[in-house]
């Protein structure tokens, strides 16, 4: 005892050794991980395996014991993981091209199976990615372009999810969700022709609006004219003869008004009605 | 917990007294690891290196000698591994320093200040144990319990697309048109535990879900709706759909709102859209002009009709007199302004001095002559 204390290097070495031993016996399992205990390559036990709807604190997380230096733990993510698909060009049944981005979310529900079949989460993602791509292409390729934009898209997604799930199960994974992130027209000709279509549609709309405006304006004017005519005839029609006289008087006054342009000379006959009194008859 | 706090008096006395005593075999010598070394040290076998009595004699001890000398060079001979037990009264700095470190470690890792907008998620050796409310809370020291504080009140914003012209976020609408969309999503954390433990990358998940939800909603509305009238409804639908998806992941995230900042036609076709609004303006102009003219025409008719009616009323009372009066008055007005030539009727040939008249009409203005014949 005494001598041990006297030799701190020895003490330190001992402590390190003890620490190593403890460290390799005790393992701390976080909530976000599940693991497979592997003994000489032979998977023995699954720890903290995912179960749906479990409450945190009641899972298998915490401290576990293992055989030091014999048991190895392969850690596998317990959370929802994501796999993103590269952009895919999809040809719909009506020969329109669509550029599609999609993602799938999955989680490892069977860590042992996943460890045997893939080895790591990354390899599961790598395995799922091309399958997601081809499932998407196949499923979308069966439909006309318009269907991809319609609410039917939900059905498409369900089909893809089912197909992908079959493959995922082989890797001990379960697909949580598959979604199309973007569905775009490819750059170049398809996009340009869509723009052209939009542009011509707008031009047509503009012309229509203008023509409709002109039409409405004309109708308004005509209605006003008709209305005026009715007012005139209602009023003047009471005595056409007097109207003729009255209107003539107005016209004379207007025509020979002093502020009219040009000078007027009049040659009056003696028989003129105006000069009737001239003659004293 | 008890055990750790049990150390406290020991440390205190160590700091006060200086002598570390032969008993406490320096678990603190290696700090946190000490508690393992503790058990080990008591029943540890005699070391092969320890048999030589004094240091400095043989191979491995040379290191110790070196250590001792270097220790002696500062701190007036205190400290030094080998020297502790034989000098019970020596002023050892080592224990004090270690004691301070331990206290610091305990203070820093046991007390947690959780802000009013935060929650602290405590894991006991990896296992979720509880969530701390705002305030000061006590936990076990670091390696045992870990606290992750999560800001649950902060509204995080994700911007998708931008309002600047150079970058376009083109989205297909239900009628196969394309719009340029910029929107932002506001969200916060509803459940810190789920947020920490459920998704491998919650932040980018929110983004992807937002994009997916927005595109699927826009794909179900028409261009007109997406550009204007239907915006609020789109925002609500996206928010709802996002929440459904995120709840499906049990992500612990609440979507606070989706705001469409910009929904415009793409730059490539913007001119055509402007032409439409210009056409609308033009059409409106046509209508305004027509309405004005119509008002004018109607008012004129009404005025003239009213005037005629008034005169006619009087005329009917005394038709002949009124008629003559009107005739004379008009003629008066007309003839007083013009040059008059009265010609004797019968066999006189009237001579019209047209050249003369023309000369009199200055400036080549159109001139005319008229003969007013009585009825």
UniProtKB/TrEMBL annotation, chain A:
Residues 24-198 form the Band domain. It is a single-pass membrane protein. It comes from the Bacteria. It is found in: Membrane. GO terms for molecular function: peptidase activity. The keyword Isomerase does not apply. The keyword Transport does not apply. Pfam families: Band_7. GO terms for cellular component: membrane. InterPro entries: Band_7, Band_7/SPFH_dom_sf, HflC. Keywords: Hydrolase, Membrane, Protease, Transmembrane, Transmembrane helix. Belongs to the band 7/mec-2 family. HflC subfamily. HflC and HflK could regulate a protease. This is Protein HflC. It comes from Sphingobium indicum.
